[in-house]
């Protein structure tokens, strides 16, 4: 006669089932969180220089010095490198 009350295999089955359910729920919640985070990151508009005026760029550039010229502020510099730095300022 087989007594399931004292069978060691029957004692571990509920724990395995609970662990399995917990593992599946954890994986599903992690996947949902990662998907939501990815979607939320895509909702932010890309940075553009369209909303920034030249005066605003020059206001920031007045506070910076040209790294190539000695004693010339970025807003007064006419080098191509300085123009590229001003473009970066407009984007930021």
Keywords:
92 residues; mainly alpha; 3 helices; rod-shaped
Percentage of residues in DSSP E strands: under 5%
- Give a quick account of the main beta sheet: strands, pairing sense, barrel closure: none
Structural class: mainly alpha
Quaternary structure state of the chains depicted:
single chain
Instruction: List low-confidence stretches.
Output: none
Total separate domains: 2
Please tell me what the overall shape is: rod-shaped
Task: Tell how many strands the DSSP assignment holds.
Answer: 0
Overall pLDDT: 79
What does this structure look like?
The chain is mostly helical and 92 residues long. The protein folds into two domains: 8-44; 54-91, no CATH class. Helix content is 60%, strand content 0%. It contains three helices and no strands. The protein has helices spanning 8-42, 54-61, 80-91. α2 (54-61) packs across α3 (80-91). The radius of gyration is 31 Å and the shape is rod-shaped. The model has no long low-confidence stretch (mean pLDDT 79).
